[in-house]
Amino acid sequence: MLLVALAAVDILISRIAEVNYRETLIRDLSAKGDMLALCPPGQATELARAADLRLTIVDAAGQVRVDSEADPFHMESHRDRPEILEALSGRHGASIRPSPTLGIDFLYVAVPYGKGALRLAVPLSDVSRQVNSLRLQTFQAALIAFVPAIVVAGFFARRVSRRLARIIEFSTKLAKGDLTAKLPSSGGDELGILATTLNETARNLERTFGQLQSERKEMEKLDRVRKDFVINVSHELRTPLASIQGYTETLLDGALHDVDNNVRFLSIIRQNAERLGRLLEDLITISRLELRTQHFQFAAYCVNDLLSECVDTMMPMAEKKQITLSQELAGEEVEVFCDAEAVHQILMNLLDNAVKYTPEGGSVVVGASPIAKDRLEFHVRDTGTGIPPEDLPHVFERFYRVDKARSRELGGTGLGLAIVKHLVRAQGGEVRVESRLGHGSLFSFTLPIHDLGLSEHVKIQEEPTVS
Ligand code: ADP
Question: Nearest to residue 342, comparing CAs of 271, 451, 421?
């Protein structure tokens, strides 16, 4: 573009300058001609030579009388020359044409001289020289102005194109799904703002995509949990139901009158009905906890009272199995901030397990002691079967049992410890277990001593169930 502009300027300047120079030269020669016309021919010729001009004087007939550079005797009549014709008519005349002797363009200017005419001539090469010199100067000036302009424009163009290339590369990565791509920040101009906006868009996309992915995973996990739960519940219900159905049919088919077996069959039916009842109760508790419809009534309670209530309730079952059930007294004034019903259920589930999984002659100890200024730890220790180390991390999952058959035989639902975990967490505590296979287990859980400002409906984290 700059070169085209330069060429246009060159053509225009050449034309204007040439016209201007010619007009100036014509005016100049006319003035000089007028001056020389005042002198006699000899002096005029001398002056013209001194000024480097060719002078020709013609008479009224157009015949050359004087010429500063040629012999007039050998020169033809100039009557038909346009400038001479004008001068003979009393006006100034000018004409440009090649000289018959030199072959180059000459400017002829003629003025009236007496009855004839006086003509001055100069080669036009002077004009061309001046025009060329002006063109050269213009070109140099343009060069001085344009070169830095071209360098600066080139620098900025390259910079812009490099930044655009980076933006294109970045968008291509985004289009291919690489949301981690990042554009280097590049100033506060339009491209810089575009880069920042694109970066923000990518980060938003990445965040949204991540959220969607984790939500999807969460949904899949919940779906799995739901399916597992339904399968587990159906499975747990099927066994006692099948048993009730089978023994009822046997009784109806005649065993009702079989005095040796009818009472046994009926007690099996009762046992299974009780198991169904326990299962339903535990399912309702778990659902309430997970749906956050379980209502807690937090208050400060005396720890020893809470413990002895549970020991009293559990004592007959322990005595039946000849298990020593004892309570380790906490300090008299020790209190805990909790829901008494929930703590009772937690302790009963733990004590029930301890008695269930401890063989005859064993012992179970329950107690509580402060472990920090604001925390209390309850524990239930037994000398029972213990739990294998690989099962320990799973015992708090729903329906997880170390020995399925034994758990069922002992009337377990597989939900006791899951309920314990939820109830403890809902009250701001943590539950843990330590166990040595063949030596016994220690279940403990913490609770706050003071009000933590817990909501009465506490959100419970869903966890996968194990069949
Ligand atoms: P269950 O109704 O089967 O007792 P829980 O959720 O209460 O279900 O316990 C899960 C499993 O943890 C039990 O099946 C049992 O294998 C193991 N377990 C719980 N408590 C004890 C304990 N005190 N001693 C040994 N094993 C235990």
Answer: 421
For a ligand 1 pocket test, name from 275, 289, 357, 441 the mutation site with the most ligand atoms within 8 angstroms of its C-beta: 357
Ligand 1 centroid vs 416 CA: distance in angstroms? 8
Give the residue, out of 351, 392, 400, 401, with the most ligand 1 atoms within 8 A of its beta carbon, to mutate for a pocket test: 401
Say how many Å lie between the CA of residue 327 and the centre of ligand 1: 21
User: Does the pTM of the predicted model rise above 0.85?
Assistant: no
* CA distances for 252 relative to 242, 245, 259, angstroms: 15, 11, 14
Q: Residues enclosing ligand 1, CB less than 6 A?
A: 353-354, 357, 382, 384-385, 387, 395, 400-403, 407, 412-418, 441
CA distance 389 to 436: 8
Residue recorded with tokens 């290339």: 165
At position 168, the amino acid (one-letter code) is I
By mean pLDDT, which of 176-190, 255-269, 413-427 is the weakest?
Answer: 176-190
Between CA 334 and CA 449 the distance in angstroms is 9
Pairing assessment for the beta strands 363-372 and 324-328 based on DSSP bridges:
parallel
Residue with tokens 């179970």: 364
Query: CA 350 to CA 364: how far, in whole Å?
Result: 10
* Ligand 1 center–CA 285 separation, angstroms: 18
What residue type is 334 in one-letter code? Answer: V
255 DSSP assignment: G
Q: Return the number of other C-beta atoms located less than 10 Å from residue 263's C-beta.
A: 10
Model pLDDT, residue 454:
66
- Dihedral pair phi/psi, residue 347, rounded to 5°: -65, -40
Residues 145-197 pLDDT 10s: 888 888 998 998 998 999 899 889 998 988 888 888 888 877 788 888 888 88
Distance 122 CA to ligand 1 centre (A): 128
For 285-307, the DSSP string reads: HHHHHHTT------EEEEHHHHH
The partner residues of 66 in beta bridges, in order of sequence, read 57
Which pLDDT score, from 0 to 100, does residue 455 have?
A: 57
C-alpha to C-alpha distance for 135 and 143, rounded to whole angstroms: 12
Of all protein residues, the one whose alpha carbon is nearest to atom 13 of ligand 1 is: 401
pLDDT at residue 58 is higher than 60: yes
